[in-house]
C-alpha cells in the first residue's frame, strides 16, 4: 500500500497526515503522540477514528500540524485521519460519518468590533 496524504482543519490549526500500513506508531511533528499531547483526552481524540473502524495498530501515522492551540490541533488531526481511513477503504465511512468525524467544524473566533472591548463584550457603561 502506498502512503495516503490528507489534510484536516479546525479553527486555525492545519494538520497534514501521512498514513501507511505499519504497527500503529503515531508521530506528531517528529515527536511521539504521548509527548506532544500529554492530556489523555487529546490522545483519545487522535486515536478515536482507529477505534471506530477497528484498525488499532494497523497503520503508521506521520503528522505535521501547525497553528491554533492543542485542542484545535488534536481535532484537526482526527479529521485528517478519518479522511485518510475513508481513502484506504470506503466502507470505513459508514462507521465514521454517524460519529461526526468526517465533518469539518466551521466554528471560528468572532472578530473584535471597534468601540467594544471584545467581540461581544462592551466597555463599562457610566451614567454620570
From TrEMBL:
PROSITE patterns: RIBOSOMAL_S9. The keyword DNA damage does not apply. Transmembrane segments: none annotated. It comes from the Bacteria. Keywords: Ribonucleoprotein, Ribosomal protein. The keyword Ligase does not apply. It holds the Pfam family Ribosomal_S9. GO terms for molecular function: RNA binding; structural constituent of ribosome. PANTHER family: RIBOSOMAL PROTEIN S9 (PTHR21569), SMALL RIBOSOMAL SUBUNIT PROTEIN US9M (PTHR21569:SF1). This is Small ribosomal subunit protein uS9. It comes from Capnocytophaga haemolytica. The lineage of its organism: Bacteria, Pseudomonadati, Bacteroidota, Flavobacteriia, Flavobacteriales.
Amino acid at each position: 500500500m502506498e502512503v495516503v496524504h490528507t489534510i484536516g482543519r479546525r479553527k486555525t490549526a492545519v494538520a497534514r497526515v501521512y498514513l501507511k500500513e505499519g504497527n500503529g506508531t503515531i508521530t506528531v511533528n517528529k515527536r511521539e503522540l504521548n509527548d506532544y499531547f500529554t492530556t489523555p483526552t487529546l490522545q483519545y481524540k487522535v486515536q478515536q477514528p482507529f477505534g471506530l473502524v477497528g484498525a488499532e495498530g494497523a497503520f503508521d501515522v506521520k503528522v505535521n500540524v501547525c497553528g491554533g492551540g492543542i485542542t484545535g490541533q488534536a481535532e484537526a488531526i482526527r479529521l485528517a485521519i478519518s479522511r485518510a481511513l475513508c481513502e484506504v477503504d470506503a466502507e470505513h465511512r459508514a462507521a465514521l460519518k454517524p460519529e461526526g468525524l468526517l465533518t469539518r467544524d466551521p466554528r471560528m473566533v468572532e472578530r473584535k468590533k471597534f468601540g467594544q472591548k471584545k467581540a461581544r463584550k462592551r466597555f463599562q457603561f457610566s451614567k454620570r
